[in-house]
Specification:
Elements (H helix, E strand, L loop, with lengths): L1 H15 L3 E6 L5 H10 L6 E7 L12 E6 L26 H16 L4 E5 L2 H9 L4 E4 L8 H9 L2 E4 L11 H6 E3 L16 E8 L9 H10 L4 E5 L12 E5 L5 H4 L2 E6 L3 H9 L3 E4 L8 H11 L3 E3 L10 H8 L14 H17 L5
Parallel strand pairs: 1-2, 1-4, 2-3, 4-5, 5-6, 6-7, 8-9, 8-11, 9-10, 11-12, 12-13
């Protein structure tokens, strides 16, 4: 009798409460936030919350219908107390960090007071585990890289579902169960695919400076510009100092909509983060990718997949001052590129629909 009464109460709650979705947005780089924003734009009829560190400073980028839970950072400039043994089953769980304790407490409090709730994790296996321990179902955004380690397997197996923000053709080598559990949304980014309608300057090259740590620095920019005097380089992104006397280097800084500049570029140079690859794919650009060192070789695997598909050229960071940049640029010009099969106009909408259906299927279990 108690069980029936319980399910009746849950059913009543579900009938009168709109969708409650929260996104955990990791603070490293900008890709996690951009994906969350793209999906959030398709869920305007839902209660949405973004949880993450440093979000308040980015409030202008985040849709107005999204509530923010700004979490303390999980690191401080003080020694971390480590146990005698290596940590198992987790990637990052520092000791003696005030911010770490506070952020966990804030998330646990949010989980306890928001019901029903589905959490989309982009990305952190520890947050996914915390949500599961709090009785909250999760959907995890996948990334490229060798993620066969124990923490990833625990988080993936315990998740309600998985979303790959890329086409299945960009999938790496992995277990059958993981592929079967994954919803491949297509090339998901903040940009919609578009045809080359702008006039392309065959001597104009875009260079993207990422936010997650990059080897594309002032020294490299000057090196490339001096090696390629007949090319014009449009540099987008933040640099601390741009005191370089190179006539063919033009610095634009942080640009709200880089498409205005990049549409006219024949080639784009950048790192192999998800944002860069998918956004340049949406613009159907020739790419030179410099894959940075990241956990699980995420950027390297993505770059290799894109190169195998004939859509990019790889220059490893350690070879940036050794290759012939002029030759690479000239060789890329005649190459025809076709990103269309990998970029889906409705990728964000498909991801949003998948999230809604997963929510319905899970919470309908309580409507007995």
């Amino acid at each position: 009798m108690l069980t029936k009464h319980y399910y009746w109460i849950q059913s009543l709650i579900l009938c009168h409460v709109p969708y409650n979705f929260a996104f955990y947005v990791h603070h490293h780089g900008s890709g996690h936030l951009m994906r969350a924003i793209a999906i959030a734009e398709t869920l305007k009829d839902c209660n949405l919350t973004f949880m993450g560190s440093g979000l308040a400073a980015k409030r202008k980028l985040i849709p107005t219908h999204v509530t923010i839970v700004d979490l303390p950072f999980d690191f401080e400039n003080k020694p971390e107390i480590k146990g005698e043994d290596e940590i198992y089953g987790l990637h990052y769980a520092p000791l003696n960090i005030n911010g770490q304790r506070s952020r966990v407490a804030l998330m646990a409090d949010f989980f306890a007071n928001t019901y029903p709730l589905l959490l989309i994790v982009d990305v952190s296996v520890e947050v996914a585990m915390l949500a599961r321990l709090s009785g909250v179902p999760t959907i995890i955004i996948r990334q490229h890289g060798k993620r066969t380690d124990l923490p990833h397997e625990i988080a993936y197996r315990n998740a309600l579902g998985l979303i790959a923000p890329y086409h299945v053709k960009m999938n790496g080598s992995e277990s059958t169960w993981l592929t079967s559990k994954t919803f491949f949304a297509g090339g998901l980014s903040r940009f919609k695919p578009e045809a080359d309608k702008s006039i392309i300057d065959e001597r104009k090259v875009g260079i993207l400076i990422g936010n997650g740590g990059t080897s594309i620095n002032l020294a490299l920019l000057k090196h490339i510009a001096n090696m390629c005097p007949d090319w014009n380089f449009q540099v987008l992104g933040k640099l601390e100092d741009i005191a370089i006397n190179c006539k063919n280097l033009i610095f634009h800084g942080d640009v709200l909509d880089p498409r205005i500049i990049l549409r006219g570029c024949c080639i784009v140079i950048g790192n192999a983060g998800h944002n860069t690859v998918m956004e340049m794919g949406a613009l159907n650009k020739r790419l030179i990718l410099i894959p940075e060192k990241r956990p699980f070789d995420e950027q390297l695997e993505k770059a290799q997949i894109v190169e195998q598909l004939g859509l990019a050229e790889i220059v490893l960071p350690e070879l940036c001052f050794k290759v012939d940049w002029n030759k690479i640029l000239l060789n890329l010009l005649p190459n025809q590129r076709n990103w269309a099969p990998l970029i889906d106009t409705n990728a964000a909408e498909k991801a949003g629909k998948y999230i809604k259906v997963s929510y319905q299927n899970f919470f309908n279990l309580f409507k007995r």
